[in-house]
Each structure stands twice: as structure tokens, then as C-alpha cells.
Amino acid sequence: MSSRSWWGWGTDENALSPAETDALVNRVAALIPDHDFTDHPPPAPQSLPVPPPRISVPATLSAVFSDDVRDRLSHARGKAFRDVVRNLHGDISHVPDLVARPRTERDVIDILDFCSAEALACIPYGGGSSVVGGVEPRFDGPAVTLDLGRLDRVVEIDDVTRSARIQAGALGPHIEDQLRPAGLTLRHFPQSFEFSSLGGWLATRAGGHFATLYTHIDDLTESIRAITPAGVSESRRLPSSGAGPSPDRLLLGSEGTLGVITEAWMRLQDRPRFGTTVSVGFDDYHDAVRATRTVAQSGLYPSNCRLLDPAEAFINAGAESPGGVLILAFESADHPVGPWIDRAVEIATDHAGHVLSQRDRGERDNTGNHASAAWRSAFIRMPYQRDALARRSMIVETFETACTWDHFDALHIAVTAVATDTVQRICGAGVVTCRFTHVYPDGPASYYSIYAPGRWGSTVAQWDEIKSAVSEAISNNHGTITHHHAVGRDHRSWYDTERPDLFAAALTAAKHVLDPAGILNPGVLVG
Amino acid sequence: MSSRSWWGWGTDENALSPAETDALVNRVAALIPDHDFTDHPPPAPQSLPVPPPRISVPATLSAVFSDDVRDRLSHARGKAFRDVVRNLHGDISHVPDLVARPRTERDVIDILDFCSAEALACIPYGGGSSVVGGVEPRFDGPAVTLDLGRLDRVVEIDDVTRSARIQAGALGPHIEDQLRPAGLTLRHFPQSFEFSSLGGWLATRAGGHFATLYTHIDDLTESIRAITPAGVSESRRLPSSGAGPSPDRLLLGSEGTLGVITEAWMRLQDRPRFGTTVSVGFDDYHDAVRATRTVAQSGLYPSNCRLLDPAEAFINAGAESPGGVLILAFESADHPVGPWIDRAVEIATDHAGHVLSQRDRGERDNTGNHASAAWRSAFIRMPYQRDALARRSMIVETFETACTWDHFDALHIAVTAVATDTVQRICGAGVVTCRFTHVYPDGPASYYSIYAPGRWGSTVAQWDEIKSAVSEAISNNHGTITHHHAVGRDHRSWYDTERPDLFAAALTAAKHVLDPAGILNPGVLVG
């Protein structure tokens, strides 16, 4: 834990090496030769004038609270571009007064009771990977950040049902490590996998590994246990039920506003034994979209069905394809997937696609140009690259949405135009790319990346202007303000437009019951 | 509409013919020779002393209200066994005072405003096929039944996304009729299909055609529009979203307590072109369950995966198989399903199953003994058979649940033992059968049927005693009180045990916001 970066992504030792950084900067500099790539390293946390905590902790709870300055700084924000840059600037607004690390559910109850009694804001915190301001105490008044990192065990595995009871603070790799001996996997691999937690996934309705079918964490959930200020809530473990509105679905996406999720029974899978990946190139992006839609509606349910637009394919997979690249993959623990991939590829080629490369699991890729393998490697390293570029005044950030297929063309054109125009106006240059992270029979989740040269000292404001413009375009074109990044504080105004007002009123009433003192993550979702 | 039975299932003209009735009675009499099969036909509705309405309707609303006695009687109950028998007895307790049939959403608003102002209970009513007391005004005081049958149109079809905006009062066949010209289908075929409505399916989280994957109506829902006493709520059409808790999931399963669902955007499918069905017999039921579980966890996702226990297979499919029969089917609009069914059958035979018969779509079945075809035909006619037997003092009813696989063996043994013992004690004879209606990777939905000789005048009380005993056994063995029949009034006490108390408190608070006067379906779910 000590090597976790307080200001940026991941761990200090996994940050880009000097050689990797040089190579990255040289690649970007070739595209944007006039940019000032001066490095702005992070300040020493101890040098920052962080005010002392405004909270006195009773002696009975002192063992679970930390007032360490680095600890508090590292919990002050998530890991969005604007979080990292503010850290680099030594911006110390909204640092939590204390960090609480419960060892048991009893500790969680005691901490919530203390916060309720003292009217202290309390922010549940898992891996801290929010990119929407979800864990930032962006308000006046004292704040306690409740870090669930100590509750990190897989408590129980049921290998008949294939499910496990897992504590909410467990990070992705630690969950998989504990499931591996049983031959099972949760197989939930968001980009944040290494540094995000089960509880965070549940609270934010995270999107996972699979491009189709059971992929949102919602669908992997058998039951949830949560501690609310009003008491403990635990649903019955069930594969499915029709008994009233789903209790779990109220907590899924509640973003720490209704209670602290402490554990959940999660649906698992056997570890896959068979797999095939094919990359298909297109000359026309419209053909590529139609091919992707047809695959999404075919009932084949590929594990991967990721359409990279031409810029995305070039930047992150080194593939030159004027209409983009569709990465199709199937995997199974039960059966060879040949008939599945064959039909999916047939659909793609029926829509004027041409196979770029194919790889079967276990076979080495010796072609040297396998688009999907290159893409996956880049995927894992992206946040570290982002940080290296953020230090050098580049604006590197993403946003995402989902819409029904009938609205996609118009949404995509509008969003891309607004993003390109705004980037051009504000930064003078820049690139906007798009990929589908997930596809449903009735629509894609499109994910946009922006790379633009900023001005040191202004990159957060520059990004915020871009973000505001594209969010308007999404909202005006039938998109959701978030498919899997959550609402947090950054998406709040567009969320308020998107959700029905009466649902907000109902949710507010539910919150008053579960959190009567209104201490949980104030400003998020309601209130 | 005029031919709809006021007392039993479906229409008068589709009831069993005299010859069919004789054949059915003879079959049952062969098993239970001592039973008194005297027919007790329904009374004439006009002969029943139904009290006059206690409600005065303003002239502006008179066009949408009916006080016709037959109309009121036919809306007094659902279509459970206990409903039908009480109708046969001329039991006129809890007949709604008026039936309202809105022609437009404006009418719905006006009716709710009238009920709120006058503090009149209002029961939303779709097809009236509830089997859990969900539409019965089982309380003192006046009641308005709000029948949505006039709102029955498919308003809009989006064939790119493959979804349609459908009014909530449309019954199953009318929905399919309107979708067929576009080559699309909702493909939601509960047993009640002919006489249940989209709004009813949504309000009760109905279970559909498919045994796996997208089958609960929840998963087919893109957005919902509802009129609540507090106003109109409409969610954005989206394939998926991570923006806060799902607004739709609060209305799904709300059973008319939060608002009146008036229309929804529903996900459609292309009409299937390929299909194969295989029946697999087993000598040992434990092998059959393990085979079914393995198929459910294989990632093959059959459209049918229905395990009939030996009694179910014999009674409804004429198949003698000491360990039961597993019916496996795949269907697709996109591709031949050979590799899928082949692997599923391989799994079944690996678990000591033996293929009984196989049928490809379009091929005639000339073997004369195809178990699944016989079963499907019986499925559609079952409620009519139930009514013919109910008139003859037989107790014919079903109950259902779902649980995780680890609990299934114990639940099944306990439920079967309790059901058999109670039936034996109360009726002296009887049969209990089981089938899986749906299977999930983490558990089956098991569905039980009971056939027992009752005493005329006591069959409702006899059934209620059986039902209470089996519900206790389900609840004590980690089952849900309902997988797809809903809670209604009959399951309320077990529902109260099952759902978290804090969720009930949150739901109650939400209801106070949406239905401040507490008029909507009082006694259901909360309050």
C-alpha cells in the first residue's frame, strides 16, 4: 500500500520508466511539434499546507482513524485527469479531515454512528479510482473518508452454485487471487481493475470485461449486504426473483449515498479454456457500425465486440484502417468456440469487413501486427501514460455514453463535432477517438478519448470546458451521461436532466429513511 | 371481450368441449376412482346479490366508468384456483364498486386525481391473470378497478434498434399481431400470454418464454412511462446505463402500488428461423439436475432447458422416465443451432441421459411420442383443464420459487415432502409434480403442480392450508416466495420475511412521495 501514488494512477514503481516516458513524449511530439513538454513533477505531500483535522475522534475509535497528511491527500480525489492535475498543482482544497479504515462491520457501524451523531459527512471509499468526483469532499465542513480497504477477503466460495461472498474492499487482483485455487473467476475486468474494489463496482454499476451479456456488475450480483446509518440491510441470495422491486437494484448505483456496501454474494464463472480473437478491418465506418450492430443482435454474444474508430485503431493498436477495426472474441470454459467466431466473422465480412488477423488462445502471435493484442497491452498502461502526459501539459481524458442504435449516428456525429471543434478552439490542435466498450442488442456504449495540447496552469479549466460541451451534446442526443463511469459530482447536472424527477423524489425519500442525518456522500445523486 | 369468462380462465368458447371434459375426467377418475366428480357450474352473474357501487362519479368522467354487475364481478379477482372456485360459489365479497377504462393517458390522470381527492382505492388492472390476489380489492371501503385494456396499441416500432413503444394494456397476442408485419417479436410468452398485458408483466416482473438469458420482462425493458398520483414519470430510452440506481427497476415489480404503467419501450427480436428441440431421459433425478445445472453454467444459453420430474413428464408429456425428462431447445434468427444443441446434448448424455427424441423446426414429428410437443400443447390448455376440474371438486394449482443450486436439493426434498404430506393428510390422495421453468447459472426456478381430490365447499380452505405449508418450506429453505407469479396479497407475509426491512422502509417512503393519498393497490407490498 505504501507504494500507491498519492497524486496519480497506481503505484510509483509501475509508473512509466524514463525510457518509456521519452518514447511516449517523442511519439506525441511528432504529432504536436509545437507543444511545451516541460515536466511538472508532483510536490512532496508533506510540503503542502494542509489544514489540521477539524474533528475530534473519541478514544474508542482512534485505532481506525488516520490523520496522516499523505493519507488524507491521497483520499482527497479520485483518478480523473482533473484530479491528477490538481494534485500536481498542490491544490489542497477539499482534503478529508480524517481517513477511517474499519477492520470489521462493527467498526463501520461505529463510524457511521459517530458521523451521524456529529453530523459529519462520510464518504465511502473503495479503490479510489473514481473519475467523476465521486469520492471528493467537494463541500464546506468536515469530512470523513471511509476506506474499506481492510475488508478485502473472499469469505466463502460455493462451487456448486459458482458464487462467492466477497468483502467490499477487496481490489480486483486480490479477488481473483482468492478465487483462483477453486478454478473460478469473477471475470470483472474494468480498466481500473488493479485499483478498484468490489464495493466501488457495485456502488457505481461498473462495466466489466465482457462486451455483451452479463457484464455490468449488476448482473453478476446475487445479494448485497450494506450498513446504513439506519441499520443493516441484507438481501436473500437468489439467482432471480419476482418478489417486488429488486432491493439490490436500489443499492446498485447508489454511489455511497444510501449505505456502505460491506459484502456481496457474486456470481462466478469457470476459468475459460477456449478462446479466439479476430480483428476485422473496414474501409467505411458506417459499414463497421452496421456489422457491429448485426453481431450484437445475432444472439452470438461475443466476449469482445469492440469497434475502434480509425484514429483509435491507429493510436492504440497501430492498425491503419480507414473505416476502423472491429475486435471480435469468444471465450468459453465449456466448448470450442469455432462456430461462434466463424458466424460472427461471416457477419462482419458480409458488411464489407476484411479479416486482419486471428489468434487462438495459447497460440503465439508471431505476425507482429496483431491489433487486439497491442490494444490490450496499451489498455492496461493507459492511465500511467495519461499521468506522464498530464505532467507535460497534455490534456488526456475520456468520456463515455450509451444510446439506442437509431440515435447512434446522430449522437456520434454531434459529439465528435463538438469535441473536435472545442478542442480546436481551446487547444489549437488535438485528436478525438472513439471505441465501443460494450454493445447491446439495442445499442452501443461508445467511449471517447481526447488528446490535446494544453497550457500548464489551465489544463483543468480547458478540460472542463471540453467536458461540458460534449456532455451537452450527449444529453441532447439521447445518450446517457454515463454508461459505467458513474455520476459522482462531475455529472450531476446532466444526471438531473436524465433521470425522471419523480424518481429523484422517491430516491430522496428513500435516502431520508436510510441516512436520516444526511451524512453519506453529500451532493451525489440527490440533495 | 364479451366472450371472456367472468368466473374462469380465457373465453367461454375456448373452454373444454364436453368430449374433452369427459376424456379429462375419465383420465383423472382412473387415478382417483373414489372422487365425486359432480359438476358445479358457475352461477349466472346477474343472479348474485352484488351491492350497488358506493361511489358517485362526476359527469365529466362517466364515459370511462362502468357499474355493470358482470363487469364488476369479472374484475373482482384474478385467475388463481382459489379465485375460480370462489366465483363458482358465487362468493361476492370484495367486488370493486366501479370499473374504469381510460381511453387516454389524460383519462388515467383524471381517474387518479378523482380517486386521490376522494380517497378511493384504485387497483391497476391489465389482463386480470393474477394468481396471487394482486387485483382483488381485499379490503373494506370502496374500490375502483382501473382496466387498461383500451390502451392496447404498438405506437412506434424502431426496427434499427429493434424496439417498440407499446401501450401497457395490450395483451400478448395483440402485441405480437402488431409486431409481426415488421418481422419482429417481443417473444415474451408466459403461460398467461393470451390474457395478460404488457403493463401486468412489467408490474409483476413476469417470466417469459426463454429458459435462460433475457427472459424476465425486466431484461426486455428499455424505458417505462408511468402515471403516478404525483405526476408523470418517464425514463430515457437506453440500452444500458450506469447513471444512479435504475429508475425502471423501481417500477418493475411495483405491482400497481407506485403508479400506473401506461407504456414502455420494449426490446424486440427478429423472428426465429432456426430451431431444434431434444428430449433427454434420465434414470436418476439427481443426474438430471446435475446435467441441467451443467448446461445452465455452460454458456450455451438454450432457449428451453426445462427439466420435468418423472410425474410431470408422465402426466403432461406422456413420457415414462424414472429420473425425469430434460427438454433442451435452441432457436435463432441468425444461424443454425447445430453446434449449440450438440454440445448441450453431449453434456446431458455425459450425465447419464439418453436422447428420447429430437425435432428440427419445420420438420414434422411423425414418431407420435414427442415429449416436448405434447407438453407444449398441454401447457396452453392447462388453465382450461384446471377450471373443468375445479368445477368437479379437484384441487389443481401451482406454486413456484427459485433458489441457488447449493440449496436446491434440500429445498426440493423439503417442499415435496411437505406438499405430499399435507395433500395426503387433507385430501387423502394427490400428486405433486415439479418442473424447472427457468434456469440460471446460479440456480433453477422450480415450479410445482398439485392435483388432489377435494371436498366441494372446502377446496379453497384445503388449498390455502397446502399453500401455507409449502410457502413456509420454501421460505425456510432459501427460496424466494415467487420467481414470476408476483407477491400480490397471497404472498405478502412471506414477502415481508424475504425482503430486507430497510428496503421495505425505503419503498414505503418512495410510495408516500408517488402516491401521497395511498390509493394505489392498498395492502400490496407495503403499508
Automatic annotation (TrEMBL), chains A, B:
Name by which UniProt lists this protein: Putative FAD-linked oxidase
Gene3D superfamilies xref list: 3.30.300.330, 3.30.465.10
Record keywords, A-Z: FAD, Flavoprotein
Domain FAD-binding PCMH-type: 92-271
Binding site residues for substrate: R386
Active site residues per record: Y447 (proton donor/acceptor)
Keyword Flavoprotein belongs to the record: yes
Cofactor entry: FAD
Record PANTHER family: ALKYLDIHYDROXYACETONEPHOSPHATE SYNTHASE, PEROXISOMAL (PTHR46568:SF1)
Signal sequence annotation: none
Record InterPro entries: Alkyl-DHAP_Synthase (IPR025650), FAD-bd_oxidored_4_C (IPR004113), FAD-bd_PCMH (IPR016166), FAD-bd_PCMH-like_sf (IPR036318), FAD-bd_PCMH_sub2 (IPR016169), FAD-linked_Oxase-like_C (IPR016164), Oxid_FAD_bind_N (IPR006094)
Family: Belongs to the FAD-binding oxidoreductase/transferase type 4 family.
Residues bound to FAD: P124, Y125, G126, G127, G128, S129, S130, E255, G256, T257, L258, G259, V260, I261
Marked site (Important for enzyme activity) residue numbers: R306
Any single biological process term in GO: lipid biosynthetic process
